[in-house]
Amino acid sequence: MVIENLTEHRKLHLRLQMVAGSFFHRREILEVPNTSSFMLSNLMHRLTTVLLVAVFRSGVQYLAPAAMGFALGTDQSPFECNAKGNMWCAGDASTNSKGILHLTPNERNQSDDFYYKTFGMALFSSPIHMLSERGRWMSFSTHFTFKIEPKYQDFPGDGMTFVMLSENRTGSPGAAFGAYGGDGWQIVETMAVEFDTFQNIPFGDLDRNHVGVDLENVRSKVARDAHYVGLVLAGSEAIHAWIDYHAKSQLLKVRISLDYRKPKDSFIEYPIRLSDVFGDEGTVYVGFSGSNGLCTCHNFYSIYDRNFQIYPDDSSIFFLVELIGGILILVVVLLVLLCGRMKKMGYISISTKEFDLKNSSTGQFMVSHEELRFQLPR
Fold it and tell me: What percent of the chain has pLDDT over 90?
């Protein structure tokens, strides 16, 4: 019987299958799913596409916090210590016309008493929320370039810190780095990485050229001599520092170098839970502090650039990968079920015996519409 009510799309589809089947097997029976099966397949394809698009969009939103952060000390965004600037500056902290941040007075020709007990603190003007949407502390990475220049090479000042505080409150000069109290204890919840250039024996300082991690007081939890990587902190050279905190492994890593390229190996590693330091609110102020004491030992501290980024820990990414994997498995199962369903719904059978395949002089196969004959299953 001749099928007259087929759509043009279906007719073309059937023609192609007949030609292919006849070319390889002149007696082959070709099977094409009927209209109901075709509609079901099309519906499954659309649902799968919508589902994967939805998962992709959710994944992008889930990973969006990775872009959170800021960069300062650039031509587009220089350090600014004013009411409308990007830094909250206290004590002797200031910026110059070139956008360089200074933590103590930068006048180089004053008498020694001018520098006695000078200190400064400069924090990013807005507090940073460090909790993810799931209520977990996020990881952070920061890089900055600094220079410590002593007024007298053999008598450097106390040093400077990268500091995180629960509140924007200053500390005392001298061994407190301008971030801790005069007794060396924290005023608010504090985590600091110190670049210490004066040996304060009462606080257990290793020497006058070390890097350390400080928490509730200035007695470092871990410290290491910068000479191990060939650095003199108060050597009047620009030093690059990288500080990374990995929330999943709860590990703080510090790297320092005269080269702008980040070293592969950490200079210091220290296990820490930020929730144990700052609690569960997750809001901190980040920046720098530096100080000089009551002696003829003074430093000039300069920060040239700085960037800071926060991002979810790796477990969030693994969660997303597992979610997508589960969706793909579900899609495969549905497709298998669809194939089984299609086999039970009946097919239109087309026998090559029911039409003649003409071969033109060019070797092409030609089938006219009038020659199509179809046989429906009974």
Answer: 57
